[in-house]
Amino acid sequence: MNRTLSFAIALSGLLLSASTATAQVPGVPSTQPAQPAKKLPSAAATTSTKTTSTTSTTTTSTSATGSGAPQVLSGGIKVDMTTAEKLLSQGKWSDAEGLFREALVSNPTDVLATLGLGMALANEFKLDSADTMFDRVIAIDPNNATAYAGKAMVMLNRLQSSSGTIRNEKDSILKQAEDYAKRATTLGPANADAHNALGQVYKEQGRNDEAASELTNATIMNPDMSYAYSSLGMVRLAQNSPAEASEAFKRAITLNSGNSTAHYGLGATLLKQGQIDDAIKELNTSLYQFPNSWPVRMALGQAYNTQGNTVAALQQFQLSTLIKPENAEPYLAMADIHQQRGDLELALADLRSGLTQSPYDLSLRQRIADIDLSLERADDAIKGYRAILSMSANDNNAVKGLSQALFLKAQKATVGAMLSSNDYDTANKALNEAIKLSPDDMELRLAKAKLVSLSGAAEFQAQYANIQPTCDGERVALAEVLATQGQFKKAADEFNAVTTNLKDPKQLYAVADIATLTRSLDSAEAAYKKSLAMGGNPERGQVGLKKVADLRKAAADAAAVAAELAHKRQWDGAIAKFREAIKDDPALPSARRGLAEALEEGPEDSVPTLSESAKQYQYYLAVATDLTEHDREKLTDLIGKLNDKVAKLKQKEERQ
Question: What angle, rounded to 10 degrees, do the helices at 329-341 and 538-567 form?
Fold first, then answer.
């Protein structure tokens, strides 16, 4: 959690490397003219007296006689540095700042007070002022390890800004912070704060093994450094070691119950372990200590969502976006909730809000394109997938999505126009490249088959007719391909196998959506109903079932109108309406037979018309389950006669 960056140096152990002698600090007028400034020794030459508080080990500057008592400053003001350091370790930044300022007013040469003020200011995110304090110390003592550690933490804290400039310069800022932290560890090999700062940098860079090593060193050198333990816990959690993470967080809380990062980390660990009530308790404690933490809001939202309290979850996710608007995670989480409810338009609104803040986030773009596809907005989906491929040319999910969107568009437009479009060429090339990179990805090969089937390529059947899928993803992809070829029973068998295997309601809804998109309506209905029976979101299930019912009704209505037109021998209108019915329900027997008869009986006897008529009769045989054997034989003979007629017409055309 990034907030830990600003807490890490708060403990007074960071002062161990500072000098206990006094010196004139540039820019601050001295109020002790009778007390000349002394030369500041290096960090290695400092002496300190340890004073133990309830939360940390602190240091106080010794007097000229070596006494360990708090400093008594001239001007009649007594400032207890131990109290200031204790306030700093407790996270009471404003109170600590006040005491350190009093110390500097009374004695501008107090380096410990200068460092302490810098730490307090850094934790209050007064970063420029904090940096100035550290620069003053370095100007006097260029080898002060703690000052460099402080500058590293200031650089890390700058990353908390939502400024576009800061976000664009993240890598260079992290590199500069790393340089400061490494210099601190070189100057003070035994300085806990230097190792802590370097560990924080590594954590932010995602170098978890190195971060764990540095943070462990920090806790060994200063066993009372609460925020090093909480940072170590976050690293262990990222390494998927919840037991070690929990131990580190509990140790951090024992040292300082006010460590909000530790409470957050422990809550996140409990959430991962399924202990939701305990997780919420820890997360609320963290929020009480630091309300403006977007990761805590995110985790709390996830906990509420797990409990089924989606209203509270949405509220926390929304608050997270207000704190850190460029973070994509809460937008995706809100979209998940709305999508599970069946509110796809609201889900799109959430995702597009996120995209305005993070236009290059591929996860947001992928989700938007996927939802556009499920809403059957083929052009929008194609545009979205192409944008992803322009940013990440080998994104397999985008390649698969693009091929599916193109096939959807082909159902609504003329196939010839689709085959001649740039979108078709783009998808074809992208699939070829993706298959080269992942030759064993059967879903990619099936997506390619589905796209190739648009052109009527003969190799389709030979290559994919006898494929044996090995996982649910391949079964779904194969079902889509089979459905496009009119093999409705085989497609339904594959979808039903997946539905039988799945036990997760969300995954069942996803399969149901794909089945709906490919108009495998019986399979879609079965998946929606099973998900509802297993406790899936009822709104989501009812929306899906309603869409299936609406498609069936639309298909039946169109087929009825087509039959009336065919009865009146208005063949063009009948054919158009039968096609409309088939688009909504490809397995509707009356539409398949009606289209076959209209094409056969129509005024034009041409190769394309009669070929399609024969094909539609074949599709009718595939979907009509109540035909007698005698009727099937008659239709099979009719198909043979139509094919013979097509062959004769072809010969006639060739002679001409």
Answer: 60
